[in-house]
Amino acid sequence: MTNGWSVARALTDPGSVAALDATGWTHLLSAARALSLIGTLAEVLADAPIPPDVARVFADVRHSNVAGQRQALWEAECARMALAEYPGRVVLLKGTAFAAAGYDAALGRSIGDLDILVDRGGLDQVEGLLLEAGWEWVKPDPYDDAYYREWMHELPPLIHAERDRMIDVHHTILPLTAGPTPDAAALIADARALPSGLYALSPADIICHAAAHLIADGDLSGGMRNLWDIDRLVRQFVVEEEGFSETLAERAKLHGLTDAVGRALRLSAQLFGTPIVFRRKSESRANAAQSDPGLGLSPENSRVSTSDTLFLRRITAVDGWGRKTRKLTRQGFYIRSHLLRMPPAMLARHLWTKWRKGHRG
Amino acid sequence: MRHSCFITVGPARFRIGSDWRAPIDQLRQLYSDYPLDEGVPDFTVRLQATSALRRVVRPQVAIAGDFTLPDAVPLPLEQGLLAAEMAMNLQMALGWRRHLLLHASAVSRNGRAVIMTGVSGAGKSTLSALLGERGWRFLGDEFVLLDPDTGMIVPFPRPVSLKNTAISAMEREVDDDTRFGPVMRDTPKGTIRHLRPRTEAVQLMARETRPALLLFPRFGYPRAVRRVDEAESFVRLTQASTNYVALGERGFDALTGFVRAMSACAIDYADGEEGVEMVERLWSEQGAKTGARAAAA
Amino acid sequence: MSVLRFAALPETALKRVPLGGLEAIYHVPSGITHLLAEPVPDLLDALARLGPGKAASAAEVLVAVAERFDIVGDDPGEAPVAVVAERLAELAQLGLVAVRHDA
Question: Which CATH number is A167's domain given?
């Protein structure tokens, strides 16, 4: 049966696709598309022996990859030009940051809107400069607007009138209504400069952000892609960044994201075999650092829990037609999403207002 | 999914799955001349119930697949065939990268193609269908595929989607009733009925042809012909292409090359007969000019 | 006061095709196509003739194109150099020319 695990297997063991027949390929391609991993799959299998009709599909996908990344990087450049007068740091987030920093995670990754992080105190100036440079509000609905500004971790989305591309301006990486409150000032202070003059989060903070996104983003529809990002990034950082395990543990604690990071790493290890070493309590740091081929996790984070299994079921839920299966679990996560983002009284108010609007409109 | 079939049109193979049998049966009927063999498809289309209940009670077909639009409105099951056609168009429009895709119709004669483009309702579809019954090879009424490497037109001869008054016009033109699909009334575009192209057009769909003449037809206006310059053609075709931007430099090279090589005219015509006559006249004049240039060189 | 100086992009960044009286320009870094009327393509040519990395002020560019064009603004009182500076700033905003702030 085809599901997210088939896609995970093809990504981590490209040789395994040799056994696929036409139906197997058909199902794999549909599942990978539905999980937003078709671009990655096409790059990973670029040099694998594949049937000609699959090769044609992948060629189209790889064209789209190139165009998508070019467009994303240009959009970042446009934001840089527009914000030239803003004295603070402009930090790229997610896919655009991976592409701009040249991380392996960017390979074949689809990139949607431009996400940037700026200091909360600079929001007004950033907003003003973007409006001046041709961006405009997407939804002028006053209720949504107030809701975004008051409770979400971003300005209401802006769209560029001529280029038709959206920008999300964040001042932190989780909604203010979510449980953990990451240290936004530390995220910006630790960010690394890119050649363009823009910034990307530090490696440890990138993992914290991806983990926060996975756990807080209740509907989990991009979960598998998100975990693939984490897998690629961790593999790269444990090699390139000295003491990465320790730094990640410290930053996760600082942002109140220890549980989220632990969960994300366990899930990516399950799906993609991300190299993670679970240390025994008695092991000293020095010893561990010498023998670890991968990322070290503290023992309380090593156990795969029942809720991990639920997350994995949801994340891998897709069939050979690209349909998201296992409806019951999905619904559970959707409700969870709202609970996560909003305290109950606010949830009630939100649903009420939405209902009233629906009723009127 | 419960019901499914594969359909190949020109260079593209589709896999269509459905929660109901009827749309698949209608597709098999309408596409009976086309290759229906299975294999890895370029695109997957899903016709699915909006909810488990809606599979049986006042069934509604939601359009889904590899590429979807978030605000696509579901159609009643009686319009399931239209839903399938719309979904296949959407896959091409959003996913195809092998050719520059122009929202246009095309016909060909003696190895030289006429490409007709314009907004919906301008008559390009009906005009191509009429010409397809009068000695021209029908290449497609919805998308024209331009090969960026060779500059050739790759046929994509889907069944013609006839709307409103065009239906009776083509019913008069075509004797063979089995070439028509079911009449679908009260669709978002009015009444729609599909017409399968002549068998030769389908049999020859792997054979490319050279573009010779670019037309911007407008139906229902007094007869007029106006030359269109390269820059105007270029702008209008970038707007008529669903993947020009996505193709990047290949798209730019293909389209600038195309408009520089082409004679282009905007034509206004009052009815189908006049349209056919104007296309044939312009095509002959263009051929004579090309011939004269070749002789002079 | 700082003076804006303009420079051509690397040759590989632009693809230019004349179409009738206009010019279609494909900007490689953004993937965006522009359609420009004269004298804008001539401004690009003038900058390209400076050589790689060399920048010029609007006044210097005006001298380079003045042989071929009478540059006048919509407002007859507008100085030619202001017209050229305005067009160059537009090109810079589109990313079609590089811009520097020299003291």
Answer: 3.30.460
Strand, helix or coil at B216?
strand
Residue A150 lies in a domain: yes
CATH of the domain at B235: 3.40.50
User: Where is the domain boundary, B95, B126, B150?
Assistant: B95
Question: Hey, are the CB atoms on C93 and A70 less than 8 Å from each other?
Answer: no
What residue numbers bound the domain in which B80 lies?
3-95
Give the chain A residue nearest C99 (alpha carbons): A81
Asked if C31 lies within 8 A of A70 by C-beta distance, the reply is yes
**Do B52 and B150 sit in the same domain of this protein?**
no
Inter-residue contact B100 to B247 (CB < 8 Å): yes
Q: What are phi and psi of A12, to 5 degrees?
A: -90, -20
Of B64, B95, B126, the one marking the end of a domain is B95
Q: What is d(CA A77, CA A125) in angstroms, rounded to the nearest whole number?
A: 18
- B167 and B31 in one domain? no
Number of domains within chain B: 2
Q: Cβ of A67 and B246 within 8 Å? A: yes
SS (H, E, C) C29-50: CCCEEEEECCCHHHHHHHHHHC
For residues B201 and B284, membership in a common domain is answered with: yes
Burial (CB count <10 Å: 0-12, 13-18, 19+), residue A119: buried
Q: A321 contacts in B (CB within 8 Å)?
A: 1, 17, 44, 46
Report the residue of chain C nearest B234, measured CA to CA. Answer: C19
Q: pLDDT by residue for chain A (361 residues), tens digit each?
A: 678 999 999 999 999 999 999 999 999 999 999 999 999 999 999 999 999 999 999 999 999 999 999 999 999 999 999 999 999 999 999 999 999 999 999 999 999 899 999 999 999 999 999 999 999 988 666 666 666 666 666 788 899 988 888 999 999 888 766 678 899 999 999 999 999 999 999 999 999 999 998 877 655 678 999 999 999 999 999 999 999 999 999 999 999 999 899 999 999 999 999 987 656 544 445 444 444 556 776 656 667 777 888 888 888 989 999 988 755 454 444 444 544 444 444 444 444 444 444 333 3
Alpha helices in A221-361 (DSSP H): 223-240, 244-254, 258-272, 285-291, 306-315, 327-341, 344-360
Q: Which residue of C has its CA nearest to A75?
A: C30
φ and ψ of B18, to 5 deg: -145, 145
CA Rg value for chain C: 13
Rounded to two decimals, the ipTM of the complex is 0.90
Are B66 and B128 in the same domain? no
Flag whether A177 is in a domain: yes
**Which residue in the block uniquely carries the two structure tokens 């990307």?**
A200
The residue of chain B nearest to residue C22, with distances taken between CA atoms, is B231
Pair B44, B163 in one domain? no
Domain that holds residue A108: 70-201
B294 touching chain A per CB within 8 A: no
Tell me phi and psi for residue B262, to 5 degrees: -105, 145
What is the SS3 assignment for A292?
Answer: coil
Chain C nearest CA to A138, separation (Å): 22
Residue B256 shares a structural domain with residue B134: yes
When divided into structural domains, chain A yields a total of: 1
B246 interface with A at CB cutoff 8 Å? yes
Residues in chain B: 297
Q: Which residue has the tokens 């030359």?
A: B227
Interface subset of A 160-219, CB within 8 angstroms of C: 163
Give the whole-angstrom CA distance, residue A80 versus residue A77. 5
Q: How far apart are CA B193 and CA B159, in angstroms?
A: 10
Tell me if A187 is assigned to some domain. yes
- Does residue A115 form part of some domain? yes
Shared domain for B82 and B8, answered yes or no, is: yes
Q: Which of C2, C12, C27, C30 is best to mutate for the A interface (most A CBs within 10 A)?
A: C30
A77 interfacial to chain C (CB closer than 8 Å): yes
d(Cα B202, Cα B205) in Å, to the nearest integer? Answer: 5
